[in-house]
Design brief:
Layout (H helix, E strand, L loop, with lengths): L1 E8 L5 E10 L2 E6 L10 E3 L3 E5 L1 E6 L15 H13 L4 H17 L2 E8 L2 H11 L2 E8 L11 H13 L7 E3 L1 E3 L7 H14 L3 E5 L3 H11 L3 H8 L6 E5 L5 H9 L3 E4 L1 H6 L7 H7 L2 E4 L12 H16 L7 H8 L1 H7 L15 E5 L11 H7 L6 E6 L2 E5 L2 E2 L4 H21 L2
Parallel strand pairs: 1-4, 1-5, 6-7, 7-8, 8-9, 8-10, 10-11, 11-12, 12-13, 13-14
Antiparallel strand pairs: 1-2, 2-3, 5-15, 15-16, 16-17, 17-18
């Protein structure tokens, strides 16, 4: 495809007008201010639009779209124990497939090309990723409240199985990471074994880290270590790791995250909605930590709109530090794109540059809220709306364009998920 006469967000996160970008197969092959010679093929008129790297949702639980609007106005532990866990006990494989497809459709609608997912129903999520054309780093969360051989755990055996079956499947669109749910849902012996297994297999890790003050302080009382210190001592950070939330990390923790190359995946909307607190993105960035942005699940958000998430992520540090100068709009765009791809091990994505993957999205610039166009990079973070996305492309394939999904029967997906959610809620109520 040839994008012509289109503005771009270039590799330096500057806005450049009236460019030509050619994609071939799954790659960007040309970026320039003049039309490439001898091009013959599909053309996309980019007047009044901007082309930018597609977003990465760095932390999500896609099948939980089933719970949108169900578990509300509760702190994390009550939210989990009183609402989420009883609901999840009744989810079936087909429910997980269609709810994942709904999540994927929503992400594509808002310009997300890749996401890092942590859940169960691994085979169903893998099928949804494969069928839809999106990219994903998926991990099956491991939990154990007992000291046991990790190989005895069903969650670990399932994780092993999906590594063998799906890692680098769908031409590399689907990667399998290994996930330990959190410190508070595992014994130290499990954490240590987990670290060894991930290292042996040469995989990436995905964890929840210091999401709530209660979790953070109870870990210190139990081990005389913060969760970050515990994971580090156990060897988890000896592999590339994405640590979701990082709301209550301390100064020493931040040094560990930086030195170990851990990605902090901040989830501003979810952490605010559950009353968990605010991740200090400015302090993390200033210390040299790779910071990406996630939505968490729609059960605690309640959407997967990365543009809305960017807006929150840009504002919160300014309020937290009473300083309007902290965290620039370029910082935010990097967090939502290239930093997320880096966390996933997708080093050839995240820039509009020849040789990079054609993982792209297009936004319409003609809406009233995008005028005047004094500073387009600023507008993309502070003024843009998710509805401005008009095209999403992964590996050079258009998956969403002008309200239509090319790989998803969205009406079937919506009706199926609606029926499944109603059935599960009825079962939960019936069983008290």
């Amino acid at each position: 495809m040839l994008f012509k006469n289109i503005g771009i967000v270039d590799e330096n996160f500057d806005y450049v007008k009236s460019m030509f970008v050619e994609t071939k197969d799954d790659r960007i092959v040309y970026v320039g201010s003049v039309r490439p010679e001898n091009y013959k093929g599909e053309e996309y008129d980019g007047r009044g639009k901007v082309l930018m790297p597609g977003f990465v949702n760095a932390h999500s639980h896609s099948p939980m779209t089933l719970l949108r609007g169900y578990a509300e106005n509760l702190p994390l532990q009550r939210w989990l124990n009183e609402k989420v866990f009883p609901f999840e006990d009744r989810i079936k494989g087909e429910d997980a497939y269609y709810s994942s497809m709904l999540a994927i459709a929503e992400m594509l609608r808002y310009g997300t090309v890749s996401f890092s997912d942590m859940y169960f129903f691994s085979e169903n999520v893998a099928k949804a990723v494969t069928d839809s054309g999106i990219k994903c780093n998926f991990s099956r969360a491991i939990t154990s409240f007992e000291d046991t051989d990790i190989e005895n755990l069903q969650s670990f055996r399932e994780s092993e199985d999906i590594v063998k079956r799906f890692h680098n499947a769908a031409d590399g669109r689907l990667k399998i990471d290994m996930s330990l749910h959190a410190e508070y849902t595992n014994r130290r012996t499990i954490i240590e074994q987990f670290a060894e297994k991930v290292r042996e297999r040469g995989l990436r890790a995905h964890i929840h880290l210091s999401e709530t003050k209660k979790e953070h302080e109870e870990c210190k009382a139990k081990y005389s270590l913060t969760p970050t210190q515990l994971f580090c001592e156990c060897g988890v950070f000896d592999v590339p790791t994405t640590a979701a939330h990082c709301v209550w990390v301390e100064d020493g923790d931040i040094e560990i995250l930086r030195d170990k190359g851990v990605t902090a995946a901040t989830c501003p909307a979810s952490n605010l909605k559950l009353g968990s607190g605010i991740c200090d993105v400015y302090k993390l960035l200033k210390s040299g930590v790779n910071v990406a942005i996630g939505t968490d699940s729609v059960a605690s958000n309640n959407n997967l709109n990365m543009i809305k998430e960017m807006f929150l992520c840009a504002l919160l540090p300014k309020g937290l530090h009473n300083d309007a100068s902290v965290v620039s709009e370029r910082d935010i765009l990097k967090m939502a794109t290239v930093n997320g791809y880096r966390a996933q091990g997708r080093e050839d994505s995240g820039a509009i540059k020849a040789g990079y993957k054609a993982d792209l999205c297009v936004l319409n610039l003609e809406s009233e809220h995008m005028y005047p166009q004094t500073d387009m990079i600023n507008n993309l973070v502070y003024a843009a709306d998710g509805a401005d996305v008009v095209l999403t492309m992964a590996d050079g394939k258009v998956l969403y364009k002008d309200g239509e999904f090319t790989t998803i029967d969205i009406e079937k997906v919506k009706s199926t998920v609606n029926a499944a959610a109603a059935r599960i809620i009825s079962e939960v109520k019936k069983n008290g």
